[in-house]
Amino acid sequence: MSEKSEPVSAELYAYLAARTSQEDSFLAKLKLAARAAEIPSIWISPEQAAMMQILLKLKGARDVIEVGTLAGYSAITMARALGPAGRVRTIEFEDRHADFAEKWIADSDVAGRIQVLRGDGRKVLPEIADESADAAFVDADKSGYATYLQHCLRILRPGGLMMVDNAFAFGSVLEKDPEDASVRAIQDFNETMAACDELQSLILPIGDGCWVGVKRDA
Ligand code: DHB
Ligand code: MG
């Protein structure tokens, strides 16, 4: 037994990624179309998708809140892990992204299980009822993360699953005094998460680092 952990090198990461279920042709086509539509290529990776689906299935999640729809890749991924009674409410600020996501969601196998809520998360989240979700995924503008977390903690049921993307700040989280405001926002947010008594959480080194937490019971 050892308390020392093996750092995940690029080689080890490629090894695990190659042994994770790959995306289907529908999501591959969605990505091609999103690139053609000049939507930023910042969706989650197939291995992060697999991780999130496994966590949602273990949780037995039915209702999911997402902040940051982008092209709809993660919303479709999550909806597929919820079963026929599941639903994802996903919030998107950019109309252009919401239009794209809605079209692809409508053509997907989980059409009807995903609702795109348009607007700023700071305005949309307050309209969502307390304890009405089993899981939440935040992957939006980094300046809003702390606010989105507070709302999600209210919206999650006890025992709910909290996931937050980009804990490694695009690989720059260890930078001292970074110029990029998003990196600074994530550094501050990570301290908030680490000190958050309402969650038991840790950063999983998948993708750009993904916070995974469980909301404590009452
Ligand atoms: C960026 C945002 C993301 O959510 C991500 O996963 C990767 C990059 C970005 O703003 O550059
Ligand atoms: Mg992200």
Describe this structure in words.
The chain is of the alpha/beta class and 218 residues long. The chain has a single domain (10-215), classed as Vaccinia Virus protein VP39 (Rossmann fold, 3-Layer(aba) Sandwich), CATH 3.40.50. It is built from 8 helices and 7 strands, in the order H-H-H-E-H-E-H-E-H-E-H-E-H-E-E. The protein has helices spanning 10-18, 25-36, 46-59, 73-79, 95-106, 121-124, 145-155, 181-194; strands at residues 63-67, 87-92, 114-118, 133-138, 156-165, 199-204, 210-215. Strands 3-2-1-4-5-7-6 form a 7-stranded mixed sheet, with helices on both faces. Helix 5 links the parallel strand 2 (87-92) and strand 3 (114-118). The structure holds 3,4-dihydroxybenzoic acid and magnesium ion (MG).
In short:
It contains eight helices and seven strands.
Sum up the structure in keywords.
218 residues; alpha/beta; Rossmann fold; seven-stranded mixed β-sheet; 8 helices; binds 3,4-dihydroxybenzoic acid; binds magnesium ion
Unreliable sequence segments: none
Backbone CA Rg: 17 Å
Shape: globular
Helix percent reads 25-40%
Class computed from helices, strands and strand pairing? alpha/beta
CATH level-4 homologous superfamily: Vaccinia Virus protein VP39
CATH topology: Rossmann fold
Strand content: 15-25%
